[in-house]
Amino acid sequence: MTKKTTSRRPTSRSTQVTLGGILGAILLGLAIIAQLTGYDPLGLFAPPPATAPAPAETGDNLAAPLSVFFTAPTGSSDRSTYVGGLEDTLAAAIRGARQTVDVAAFELNSRPIADALLDRHRQGVRVRLVTDNEHGLDVALYQRYRAATGSAKEDIRLQFITDPDDTLLDELYEAGIPIVDDGRNWMSYTRRASRLLTMGATG
Questions:
Q1: Higher local confidence (pLDDT), 119 or 27
Q2: For the chain, how many structural domains are there in total?
Protein backbone atom coordinates (compact mmCIF):
# COMPACT_ATOMS: atom_id res chain seq x y z
CA MET A 1 0.00 0.00 0.00
CA THR A 2 1.51 3.27 -1.03
CA LYS A 3 1.14 6.45 1.06
CA LYS A 4 -0.37 9.36 -0.72
CA THR A 5 1.61 12.57 -0.29
CA THR A 6 0.40 16.06 -0.94
CA SER A 7 2.44 19.17 -1.48
CA ARG A 8 1.44 22.86 -1.32
CA ARG A 9 1.78 24.62 -4.56
CA PRO A 10 4.22 27.54 -4.14
CA THR A 11 2.99 31.03 -4.82
CA SER A 12 4.37 32.28 -8.04
CA ARG A 13 6.70 35.29 -8.00
CA SER A 14 4.40 37.22 -10.29
CA THR A 15 1.55 36.84 -7.80
CA GLN A 16 3.75 38.21 -4.96
CA VAL A 17 4.77 41.17 -7.06
CA THR A 18 1.15 41.87 -7.95
CA LEU A 19 0.02 41.74 -4.30
CA GLY A 20 2.89 44.03 -3.27
CA GLY A 21 1.99 46.50 -5.98
CA ILE A 22 -1.66 46.51 -4.93
CA LEU A 23 -0.77 47.10 -1.27
CA GLY A 24 1.64 49.86 -2.24
CA ALA A 25 -0.98 51.54 -4.38
CA ILE A 26 -3.51 51.35 -1.55
CA LEU A 27 -1.07 52.89 0.94
CA LEU A 28 -0.16 55.61 -1.53
CA GLY A 29 -3.82 56.38 -2.09
CA LEU A 30 -4.48 56.56 1.66
CA ALA A 31 -1.49 58.86 2.09
CA ILE A 32 -2.77 61.21 -0.64
CA ILE A 33 -6.26 61.25 0.87
CA ALA A 34 -4.86 61.97 4.33
CA GLN A 35 -2.69 64.77 2.94
CA LEU A 36 -5.52 66.42 0.99
CA THR A 37 -8.44 65.93 3.32
CA GLY A 38 -6.95 65.17 6.70
CA TYR A 39 -9.00 61.95 6.76
CA ASP A 40 -6.86 59.09 8.05
CA PRO A 41 -9.12 56.19 9.15
CA LEU A 42 -6.21 53.91 10.06
CA GLY A 43 -4.13 56.57 11.77
CA LEU A 44 -1.12 55.71 9.65
CA PHE A 45 -0.23 59.23 8.60
CA ALA A 46 -1.19 61.28 11.64
CA PRO A 47 1.51 63.76 12.68
CA PRO A 48 3.22 63.08 16.00
CA PRO A 49 1.51 64.72 18.99
CA ALA A 50 2.69 68.23 19.64
CA THR A 51 4.81 68.62 22.72
CA ALA A 52 4.21 71.52 25.05
CA PRO A 53 6.98 74.15 24.91
CA ALA A 54 9.37 74.20 27.81
CA PRO A 55 8.36 76.73 30.45
CA ALA A 56 10.24 80.00 30.44
CA GLU A 57 13.15 79.98 32.82
CA THR A 58 13.21 82.41 35.69
CA GLY A 59 15.61 83.68 38.28
CA ASP A 60 19.23 82.91 37.40
CA ASN A 61 18.18 81.22 34.14
CA LEU A 62 16.18 83.92 32.39
CA ALA A 63 14.96 82.82 28.97
CA ALA A 64 15.68 86.20 27.40
CA PRO A 65 17.53 86.93 24.17
CA LEU A 66 20.97 88.45 24.23
CA SER A 67 21.69 91.85 22.74
CA VAL A 68 25.15 91.94 21.21
CA PHE A 69 26.97 95.19 20.45
CA PHE A 70 30.33 95.77 18.76
CA THR A 71 32.16 99.03 19.24
CA ALA A 72 33.89 101.00 16.52
CA PRO A 73 36.59 102.97 18.36
CA THR A 74 38.05 106.01 16.66
CA GLY A 75 41.16 106.21 18.81
CA SER A 76 40.30 109.71 19.98
CA SER A 77 41.14 110.60 23.58
CA ASP A 78 38.80 113.60 23.54
CA ARG A 79 36.06 112.51 25.92
CA SER A 80 33.80 115.36 24.79
CA THR A 81 33.23 113.33 21.62
CA TYR A 82 32.03 110.29 23.56
CA VAL A 83 28.31 110.94 23.13
CA GLY A 84 25.53 108.48 22.28
CA GLY A 85 27.83 105.48 22.33
CA LEU A 86 27.64 102.02 23.80
CA GLU A 87 28.21 103.23 27.36
CA ASP A 88 24.85 105.07 27.26
CA THR A 89 23.12 101.81 26.24
CA LEU A 90 24.91 99.93 29.03
CA ALA A 91 24.08 102.59 31.61
CA ALA A 92 20.40 102.50 30.64
CA ALA A 93 20.34 98.69 30.92
CA ILE A 94 21.99 98.86 34.36
CA ARG A 95 19.50 101.46 35.60
CA GLY A 96 16.69 99.12 34.56
CA ALA A 97 17.88 96.39 36.93
CA ARG A 98 15.59 95.67 39.87
CA GLN A 99 17.27 92.75 41.65
CA THR A 100 20.92 92.14 40.73
CA VAL A 101 23.65 93.55 38.51
CA ASP A 102 26.72 91.37 37.87
CA VAL A 103 29.55 93.05 35.96
CA ALA A 104 32.77 91.68 34.48
CA ALA A 105 35.02 94.56 33.39
CA PHE A 106 38.67 94.47 32.41
CA GLU A 107 38.80 98.09 33.53
CA LEU A 108 36.23 100.77 34.31
CA ASN A 109 36.67 104.46 33.62
CA SER A 110 33.25 105.32 32.22
CA ARG A 111 31.41 107.87 34.33
CA PRO A 112 27.91 107.03 33.00
CA ILE A 113 28.36 103.34 33.80
CA ALA A 114 29.89 104.01 37.21
CA ASP A 115 27.05 106.40 38.07
CA ALA A 116 24.47 103.82 36.98
CA LEU A 117 26.07 101.16 39.18
CA LEU A 118 26.21 103.52 42.14
CA ASP A 119 22.57 104.45 41.59
CA ARG A 120 21.45 100.81 41.60
CA HIS A 121 23.54 100.08 44.69
CA ARG A 122 21.97 103.00 46.57
CA GLN A 123 18.51 101.79 45.52
CA GLY A 124 19.09 98.41 47.15
CA VAL A 125 19.94 96.42 44.02
CA ARG A 126 22.68 93.84 44.61
CA VAL A 127 25.69 94.95 42.55
CA ARG A 128 28.77 92.76 42.19
CA LEU A 129 31.84 93.23 40.05
CA VAL A 130 34.77 91.16 38.75
CA THR A 131 37.76 93.00 37.30
CA ASP A 132 41.36 92.53 36.26
CA ASN A 133 43.86 92.95 39.09
CA GLU A 134 46.25 95.06 37.03
CA HIS A 135 44.18 97.19 34.68
CA GLY A 136 41.12 97.21 36.91
CA LEU A 137 41.72 97.23 40.65
CA ASP A 138 44.09 95.16 42.77
CA VAL A 139 41.81 94.96 45.80
CA ALA A 140 44.43 93.78 48.32
CA LEU A 141 46.90 96.45 47.20
CA TYR A 142 44.19 99.10 47.28
CA GLN A 143 43.29 98.16 50.86
CA ARG A 144 46.93 98.64 51.86
CA TYR A 145 46.99 101.93 49.98
CA ARG A 146 43.92 103.19 51.87
CA ALA A 147 45.42 102.30 55.25
CA ALA A 148 48.85 103.82 54.57
CA THR A 149 49.88 107.41 55.16
CA GLY A 150 52.65 109.75 54.06
CA SER A 151 55.54 108.35 52.07
CA ALA A 152 54.36 104.77 52.62
CA LYS A 153 51.18 105.62 50.78
CA GLU A 154 53.15 107.01 47.85
CA ASP A 155 55.40 103.95 47.77
CA ILE A 156 52.35 101.69 47.49
CA ARG A 157 50.87 103.95 44.85
CA LEU A 158 53.88 103.26 42.61
CA GLN A 159 53.04 99.54 42.69
CA PHE A 160 49.75 99.99 40.86
CA ILE A 161 49.72 99.17 37.16
CA THR A 162 46.69 101.44 36.83
CA ASP A 163 46.78 104.45 39.10
CA PRO A 164 43.72 104.75 41.37
CA ASP A 165 43.10 108.18 39.87
CA ASP A 166 42.70 106.58 36.41
CA THR A 167 39.87 104.24 37.35
CA LEU A 168 36.42 104.59 38.90
CA LEU A 169 36.56 101.17 40.54
CA ASP A 170 37.95 102.64 43.75
CA GLU A 171 34.88 104.86 43.95
CA LEU A 172 32.59 101.83 43.64
CA TYR A 173 34.64 99.99 46.26
CA GLU A 174 34.39 102.90 48.67
CA ALA A 175 30.61 102.92 48.19
CA GLY A 176 30.46 99.33 49.43
CA ILE A 177 30.08 97.48 46.12
CA PRO A 178 31.83 94.07 46.34
CA ILE A 179 34.74 93.85 43.88
CA VAL A 180 36.75 90.71 43.17
CA ASP A 181 39.97 90.97 41.18
CA ASP A 182 41.08 88.23 38.83
CA GLY A 183 44.79 87.70 38.31
CA ARG A 184 44.67 85.31 35.36
CA ASN A 185 46.18 86.47 32.08
CA TRP A 186 42.83 86.11 30.36
CA MET A 187 39.82 87.00 32.47
CA SER A 188 36.36 85.84 31.49
CA TYR A 189 33.00 85.63 33.19
CA THR A 190 29.79 84.20 31.76
CA ARG A 191 26.28 84.00 33.11
CA ARG A 192 23.17 82.55 31.47
CA ALA A 193 20.95 85.17 33.01
CA SER A 194 22.74 87.97 31.21
CA ARG A 195 20.59 89.89 28.78
CA LEU A 196 23.30 92.19 27.49
CA LEU A 197 26.60 91.03 26.05
CA THR A 198 29.41 93.30 24.92
CA MET A 199 32.59 92.26 23.20
CA GLY A 200 35.76 94.24 22.74
CA ALA A 201 39.51 93.99 22.63
CA THR A 202 42.41 95.90 24.11
CA GLY A 203 45.71 96.72 22.60
A1: 119
A2: 2
Angle at 196 between CA 168 and CA 169, to 5 degrees: 10
| pLDDT tens readout for residues 119-159 | 999 999 999 999 988 888 888 888 888 888 888 888 988 88
Q: Which residues contact 179 (CB under 8 A, 6 or more apart)?
A: 129, 130, 131, 137, 139, 169, 172, 173
- Three-state secondary structure string covering 163-188: CHHHCCHHHHHHCCCCEEEECCCCCC
**DSSP run (H or E) holding 139:** helix 139-147
23 and 69 inside one domain: no
Alpha-carbon span 190 to 8, nearest angstrom: 75
Pairing assessment for the beta strands 67-70 and 196-199 based on DSSP bridges: parallel
| CB-CB contact of 44 with 30 (8 Å) | yes
Q: How far apart are CA 56 and CA 201, in angstroms?
A: 33
Straight-line distance from the first to the last Cα atom of the chain, in angstroms, rounded to the nearest whole number:
109
Do 41 and 132 have their domain in common?
no
Please list, in sequence order, all residues whose beta carbon lies within 8 angstroms of the beta carbon of residue 133, skipping any fewer than 6 positions away: 139, 181, 182, 183
* Residues 22 and 68 both lie in one domain: no
Separation of CA 46 from chain center: 38
Torsion of CA 11, 12, 13, 17, to 10 degrees: -70
Domain enclosing residue 20, as ranges:
13-48
Distance, in Å, from the CA atom of 175 to the CA atom of 41, rounded to the nearest integer, reads 73
